[in-house]
Amino acid sequence: MAARRSQAASLASRQSYAPAGFRARDSLYPVPQGDFLKSLEDCVGATEACVGSISNAIDALAPGVEDLPRLSAIYRNMHYYVVVPEPKLDQHKASYAASLSPQIDQLIERAEQLVAAEGAGVGRLEERLAMLETARLPAFPAAPARPSAFADLDDKNEGDTRCRLDGVDTKGASMAQARKIGLLKKKREKLELEMARLQEQGA
Fold first, then answer.
1. What sign does the dihedral 146-149-151-155 (CA atoms) show?
2. How many structural domains is the chain composed of?
3. Full-prediction pTM beyond 0.70?
4. How many angstroms separate the CA atoms of 54 and 49, rounded?
5. What is the 3-state secondary structure (H, E, C) of 121-184?
6. Are 129 and 174 part of one and the same domain?
7. Which of 13, 52, 103, 141 pairs with 7 at a CA distance of 20 to 30 A?
8. How far is CA 22 from CA 15, 18, 25, 77, 84, in A?
9. Is residue 164 part of a domain?
10. Where do the coiled-coil regions begin and end (predicted)?
11. Residues 131 and 161 in one domain
């Protein structure tokens, strides 16, 4: 209250530069009743609080927007289009094809030579294997021709055939020879079963 009185006294004692006998113009607004300085102080306090809030907001936003010009320059997308005539493209394609064609042809030729060499090696190995098998395997006499598939088996010839195959000693033979003898035995058994089946059907 004392502060308000001192403020009012200072306003009253302030020198006036208005001419003598000058009377202030009456206000269009009604004079507030009571003490208006209290409301004025509240308004000034609220204004200062708003200014402080705005200042804090500016301080908080400043780090995020102060680098905006540089970021805008960085993230600016610029598209460049180069239009090349079709004849020029064909010319470059032909040039690349001409430069790469000899190398590709050379690689294809080398691959064909390697394939041919491998094929020749495989052929030689097969010939050598056939020669070894014919040279080392015992020669089995051919079975006598039978007049009919439904004829009765000759016990003597059948026993001789079994003896010829079963009597072969596979201990001293090579792996290829033993395998071939086993295949012949299986083939003989299969033929015997087929012959027995045919005889049963014919009977």
1. positive
2. 2
3. no
4. 9
5. HHHHHHHHHHHHHHHHCCCCCCCCCCCCCCCCCCHHHHHHHHHHHHCCCCCCCCHHHHHHHHHH
6. no
7. 52
8. 14, 6, 9, 70, 88
9. yes
10. none
11. no
Q: Which amino acid is at 31?
A: V
114 Cβ contact list (under 8 Å, min separation 6): none
CA 199 → CA 148, 157, 194, distances in Å? 11, 18, 9
Is 20 contained in some domain?
no
Can you give the pLDDT of all 203 residues of the chain as single tens digits? Answer: 444 455 544 544 555 555 566 666 666 766 666 666 677 888 888 999 999 999 999 998 888 888 888 888 888 877 778 888 899 989 999 998 889 989 999 999 999 999 998 988 888 888 888 877 776 655 545 555 544 444 444 454 555 555 555 656 666 667 777 788 778 888 888 888 888 888 887 76
Q: Which domain holds residue 182?
A: 144-202
161 and 122 both lie in a single domain: no
Q: Which residues 6+ apart lie within 8 Å of 7 measured at CB? A: 37
Tokens of 193: 């079963």
- How far is residue 202's CA from residue 75's CA, in Å, rounded to a whole number? 95
| Residue 105 falls inside a structural domain | yes
Q: Are residues 148 and 108 in the same domain?
A: no
CA angle 113–130–119, rounded 5-degree value: 10
Residue 81, in any domain of the structure: no
